[in-house]
Write a structure and sequence with these properties.
alpha+beta, Heat Shock Protein 90, 10% strand
């Protein structure tokens, strides 16, 4: 599989462009310098300055080209950028020092481009300021080429500004591309894991979960065996089919507490507890959770059913729980002291905490316990 492009590829390309321009500009300066020395119509007061400038520029171009291959990270150091800019400044004023016309060509920009590569926009600002100042030195020296020197300074500003903008856009685009490819690679990895998980889940569903379900329906199995089978089935289903639809589940709260209570009661009772939860809240919900536990236990003990349904909902300002069975039922108005758990642990508990408990039941028609607890709005 081919290696995906990396951001280092763009940086390497930019460094090669910077190095290539330096070599090109050095050749440009060399040709102009030779023309100045060879021209009979051009006066050169100090030809040694022209010759020395050509020699230093060519040597620096060769040295930086070798460094690009041997130590590419060197171009990102302040020492390198300072030397590069310094030589660019010297080339810009070398004609003035030599007492002749300017022969730097486009070489001063090489240092500014190196600063842009190394330090981005900061390097571009520094490079533009330094070169503009250097370009105006002949004006300060009271030479007659005022308009030409100002034109050179303006050219430096616009050239460095354009290079800075192009480099910034390229790097921004590269970061976006790398981020997109990273996200795509992550998505592919997660998809592969999900497919593998689905394969395992399908296999276990067709084997282990089926066997656990058969054990629960086997009339010969003892209550302890059926309870253990339900417990193992629930744990296996939670692992195979995790509920990730509600991000609040990770933080606990009402949902987590209700799941835990239903699981505990189901493990100790003969009936299976079927739970549906909508929403979640981190507000205090202990009274309604404890009342729910008592309602489920009553159904396990008195209803004589194989299934107890529990529905929980966390609304904006209240929490609701409905516990329902299709068992023997009873007359709520005939509750006596023998049903102390129903009277105190459910109705009394909810009223003491500002909530309410409504019991709907009749003999032979099952029972539904409706619990309501006001809570503060929670996100």
């Amino acid at each position: 599989m081919a290696r995906p492009p990396r951001s280092e590829d763009l940086e390497s390309t930019l460094l090669w462009i910077t190095t290539g321009y330096r070599v090109f500009a050095a050749a440009w300066l060399t040709i102009l310098g030779i023309v100045v020395l060879a021209s009979k119509s051009t006066e050169v007061e100090r030809p040694a300055v022209v010759v020395a400038t050509i020699g230093v520029v060519l040597a620096w171009a060769a040295l930086t080209t070798v460094a690009r291959v041997v130590r590419p990270g060197l171009a990102r150091t302040w020492a390198f950028v300072t030397l590069d800019l310094g030589l660019g400044v010297w080339s810009a004023i070398a004609g003035t020092v030599a007492g002749t016309i300017q022969f730097a060509g486009g070489y001063p920009l090489a240092g500014a481009f190196g600063a842009i590569f190394a330090f981005g926009t900061t390097g571009g600002i520094i490079g533009a300021a330094v070169l503009t100042t250097a370009g105006l030195v002949p004006v300060l020296a009271r030479r007659d080429s005022f308009s030409q020197e100002v034109a050179n300074a303006i050219a430096y500003i616009f050239s460095v500004g354009a290079a800075t903008a192009v480099a910034a856009v390229l790097r921004w685009s590269e970061r976006r591309r790398v981020a997109a490819e990273t996200a795509l690679a992550t998505e592919r990895t997660e998809r592969a894991r999900a497919e593998e998980h689905a394969e395992v889940a399908a296999h276990l569903h067709d084997s282990v979960l089926q066997m656990l379900a058969l054990i629960q329906r086997d009339p010969a199995a003892t209550p302890d065996i059926r309870g253990l089978a339900r417990h193992q089935e629930r744990e296996l289903r939670d692992w195979l089919f995790p509920d990730t639809s509600d991000a609040a589940l990770q933080g606990g709260g009402f949902r987590e507490a209700l799941v835990q209570v239903c699981s505990e009661v189901e493990d100790i009772g003969p009936a299976k507890v079927e739970l549906v939860i909508v929403g979640n809240t981190s507000a205090p919900v202990e009274p309604i959770v404890r009342a729910t536990r008592e309602a489920i236990l009553n159904a396990q003990i008195h209803a004589g059913v194989d299934l107890v349904s529990v529905y929980g909902e966390a609304a904006v300002n209240e929490v609701l729980v409905f516990v329902k069975d299709r068992g023997s039922g009873f007359d709520p108005d005939a509750i006596d002291a023998s049903r102390h758990g129903l009277r105190e642990s459910i109705v009394g508990r909810m009223e003491r905490h500002g909530g309410s408990a409504e019991i709907i039941s009749s003999p032979g028609a099952g029972t539904e316990v409706r619990l309501r607890l006001p809570v503060e709005a929670s996100t």
